[in-house]
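Reader question, answered in our methods column.
A reader sent in the components of a multi-part assembly and asked whether the whole thing could be modeled at once rather than chain by chain. We filled in our standard form and ran it. Here is what they sent:
COMPLEX SIZE: two components
ENTRIES:
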Amino acid sequence: MTFPALANALSTALVPLLLLVIPIAGILRRVRVYDAFVGGAKEGFNVAVRIIPYLVAMLVAIGMFRASGAMTLLARAIEPATRLVGMPAEALPAALLRPLSGSGTLALVSDLMKTHGPDSFVGRLASTLYGSTETTFYVLAVYFGAVGIRRTRHAVAAGLLGDLAGVAAALLFCRLLF
Amino acid sequence: MLNAVWIGLIAVAVVVGAATGRLDAVTKAAFDSARGAVELAIGLVGVMALWLGVMRIAEEAGLARALARLLRPAARRLFPDVPADHPALAAILLNVSASWLGLGNAATPLGLKAMEELQKLNPAKDTASNAMVTFLALNTSSITLVPATIIAVRVTLGSANPTEIVAPTILASACATVVAVTAAKLLERLPAFRAAGSGAHEDDPPDEGRP
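And here is the structure of the entire assembly that came back:
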């Protein structure tokens, strides 16, 4: 496969390239690049500190939820329905956890691949599930928190519909390709 | 809606934890997660400073505006409320390309920068604008071109073809993105999700279908 290699090379080169090209463009436009950089960088600390309460709130709720074992119960409750569409029961908890916790899902997915083998259907499906969406609740909490948005309107609904589509599409494409 | 999700998660955790005798684990998880959240945020300070510094250079050099102008055709559809040469569009483009390439470290600071720029255009400061929700839909369903982490795990576990999951991952994440963005664009018109205005009870979740 040459595409992953190409994309990998691009993602390795992109950061150094941006760090070089942007300041050079600044110099050419007679920007005092060092002062501009420091001015912008000053905001970094404030933004990071501003998101702390939102991160604490969201990660505490998610951490408690995971530790209670509710995920296993939920997976068991909806498993009969998901089996009808060909979703292996083993991969279901990983799909349910994906919008809540990236590192938690990675742990589950790694575990599934250890048990079933990375080249089993469950292993391939779990790998695809992990990459098919982002950690919706983390992104919403941090991004809205950083600018003080309290009324999030349809953001949760749109994010979760995307997650659901990601899981369904992962299952579909794994069935078609493997 | 985040209100409901948040209290729901905690309530379920406490009830199920009590029923299964895992309340001690739930308590420990609460404290561990709180500490982890702060460590995560503090860990962000350095990369935030780096990218916000670089972004400032790009702005002062006029690069952000040039980039935004380049994006005009796509941006007009996705973000009709954002002026064509607004720096928010440049930050959005950089954030989205960073997350497509799997550069999480760069994506978060650039995404927060984009949110700040969108907030400048937002008439109701405590309510998400249409542009913000569309941007986050793009972001939470992010297309993944190189699932580097999972490839690494597969290599470690001795997969015969660790990169075979790249194609389904790209396809599945593209579906997720299309659905999330379409949902954002369609749902923004529903009265239940309507934009700012009433504002009197800002603590209420906006999805209660007020008259």
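What stands out: Residues 1-46 of chain A form one domain. Chain A touches chain B through 107 residues (CB under 8 Å).
Send us your own complexes using the same form.
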